[in-house]
Amino acid sequence: MTKPVARTIAAVVAIGVVCCVVVLIVAVHLPGGNNRPETGNVTPEGSPTVSALPGDISRNATPNQAPEEVKRVKNMTSKEVWERAQEIYASWYRSSTVERVLKEANMTPEELPDDVTEELKTTVQFEGIIRTWEFDPQNKQVVIYAVSARNEEHEKELSAFQGRQVGGWIFNVVWEPYVPSSVKRALKEANMTPEELPDEVKEEMENIGVQIGDIRKWELDPQNNRVTAHTYFSGDAKHEKEVQAAQGRQVAGWTFNVVQERYVPVAVRQALKEANMTPEELSDEVKEEMKNIVQSAEIGSIRTWELDPQNKQATVYVYSIPKENDVDAIQGKQVDGWTFTVIHDVNYEKEHEKDLEQLAAELMQLQKDHPELQISSFATSATEIDMWVFNRTPENEALNGTVMHNRTVLIYWSPVDYALRMAREEAGW
User: Fold this and answer.
1) What domains are there in the chain, each with its CATH number?
2) pTM of the model
3) Burial letters 386-419, b for 16+ CB under 10 A, else e
4) 370-393: pLDDT as tens digits
């Protein structure tokens, strides 16, 4: 992006727009709010995007409306604010998890006595070993299916729930052998049950997964007693040694094989498709060079690739080239008989920057004209507009999945940010 355009957008957005190779971040600060620009389309790790808030806090609660447990407490230290934020987040997470499992069971919170709901919340801390919760309203039973041999301390504590009577309901815990998710998928694809695969084989699959790492998928052939691990070439000597060690390994009458393939980025696969070529028609060296350019070369943003197998030309069209770049190093480079060419797509760049300016202005106007949307910040990519909100409301949830400037709007609410904001409000910050 040129400097004049960057300055123009900065003036429009007030706090600026930072344009990177992949994503444009547009951070919008609301008065008195705690904002920070975000990148990408993910929420904080382990934070499901559901709308339940901790305790009795409503979606749009203000400090004056909040219940007693979240009233302001003056003179809190930074450490105390952080600890309080963790408590608020933990309360929200327990509540939202129970809400989710009830929804999966086609039940409403009103169908469970309050004390049973509270007891359920105490089991959320063991979710690392819990596969699922099931409810039997007719017999008033809560059945917890848990995985053994994962966490001995949690196993002991969760076992204490067995037979517990709460509000006329009884809690039961059913223990199951641990089966990694990747193994479960392989069993499902092979139409096999866990019992049909020897425990030693399942355990070996888990061990090989740890040793080799980056297993793309497992494949089971019960007719010939074969287990195939699909993974990528890494070029790392230690990794190759682990692959060779697993090759042909015999366990409980089953034979293990490892199939390696080269990783082909999405952009490269698309170029092959447009050129009516298969990955096999392009040498591994050329694919590797294209992958390196996509993943690590400083050439700006890639609009598209163009492959000409007849003249063995690989052309990459780019825009927003940084001042310090690798264009000269790639221009005219020869790899296995193919010539690489970099073309600065100036016309697309101008259109792209104009589109970004207009989009930034429209997003700012949207935030200004519609306070009910409670918009915190934006992040845009070529295909998406990630919109962070302070609280989830019917108004902003209605925006989820709509399209602006050929980009899909995705609504995100961060419970971590919410907890921090509530803790700071309690402290009077």
Assistant:
1) 78-176 (no CATH), 185-261 (3.30.300), 266-347 (no CATH)
2) 0.57
3) bbbbbbbbeebeebeeeeeeebebbbbbbbbbbb
4) 999 999 888 888 889 999 998 888
